């Protein structure tokens, strides 16, 4: 199918990464930075140029577009989704992408800052990329493969179908979102307008990677109240909330249940913010596990521990509030097994081995899944993201294009 296809994914990617689309967590606007629209406008124009007439960007910077069905069957509408913004952690302005053709397996020294060296020792996946064409930044910025690799893959999929009317598929929706990196990627998405049944984000790493599972997440706010008094006349009266908080934090488990002591499928409780004075301290925790019921266990544990500590300080008291943040998308995807079945078959049809993975975090897909659009995550080849050592293999991006073209066709084949 792809033997005589001229992939456009690399050429597109090299152009998109040169457009600065960094998002800003401190901004109150939507999108958080107006420059994200610079790329979104380019995408709309390119979609129109290949004949996708309904492509448009809304006031919040979301791009919506549809590839019409060419099938007689009733095919569920699927959506491919990627984010246009890059992480605030590292500069995204003046990105100079460099193609390292036929990568030789050695260290890659980035020319604009020769202290920046991408080594297979630090990035073992690079070992497998020998002979492929690797794209990096030049040493002073991130590359932006997260997630412009996903954007370029979807654009090339669109290009493929618009130039090859023979392969059958249902309606395919395209969605590009702003502000994913600052956690606001789906705040203003219009799922009614999108009108898709199932979605896939293109935002995972290694070739073959497939994520249909994320953490479940709660936030806990603990407020410790002490009793303040003039320190010169405080004997027998003062109860210092700061000291109570200190003892409580010190009593947290040292060897388990923290991000620094867990991996794979283990969950944790994690203090992320502290703010206070003698009279009152507010502690913020995040609680994470793949099994939602475990969040309750961890919260009960924290609450009990807090009660024990508070009891040691007569006069002190505490409040404990839990707020749901997001849930493991697998809870939703389990109801629609075909979403993952077809995706895995598509990866295999592209000649790639499936690597099922769990995201130790949340994704826009987990929020979309609970908003009514079941939405696992498919590989693009983006690696070492959010930093100057970010890289992507052109051949990985091409395999990602093949995967989602096959995926749209499998949905059509399995429909009646
Ligand atoms: Zn991303």
Write a brief caption for the model.
With 416 residues, this protein is an alpha+beta fold.
Q: What is the chains' assembly state?
A: single chain
Order of helices and strands: HHEEEEEEEHEHEEEHEEHEHHEHEEH
How are the strands of the largest sheet arranged?
A: 1-2-8-3-9-16-10-15
On the 0-100 scale, what is the average pLDDT?
A: 96
Kindly state the number of beta strands. 17
Instruction: Name the overall outline.
Output: globular
| Computed CA radius of gyration, to the nearest angstrom | 24 Å
Bound molecules: zinc ion
Give the count of helical stretches. Answer: 10
Cα(first) to Cα(last) distance is 24 Å
Stretches where pLDDT is under 50 for at least 5 consecutive residues are none
Q: In what range is the share of β-strand residues?
A: 15-25%
The largest β sheet comes out as: 8 strands, mixed
State the helicity in percent bands. Answer: 25-40%
Question: How would you explain this protein's 3D organization?
Answer:
This protein is α+β, with helices and mostly antiparallel strands. 29% of the residues lie in helices and 22% in strands. The chain contains 10 helices and 17 strands. It has helices at residues 9-16, 36-49, 145-163, 191-194, 241-250, 292-311, 330-333, 337-349, 364-371, 394-413; strands spanning 56-57, 63-67, 78-83, 98-100, 108-109, 117-118, 134-136, 172-177, 198-204, 209-214, 216-225, 268-276, 280-289, 317-326, 355-359, 377-379, 391-393. The strands form 4 sheets. Strands 1-2-8-3-9-16-10-15 form an 8-stranded mixed sheet, sandwiched between helices. The chain has a 4-stranded antiparallel sheet with strand order 12-13-11-14. Strand 1 (56-57) and strand 2 form a beta hairpin. The longest helix is centred in the C-terminal third of the chain and has 20 residues, at 292-311. It is globular, with a radius of gyration of 24 Å. The two termini are 24 Å apart. Zinc ion is lined by residues 83, 146-147, 180, 203.
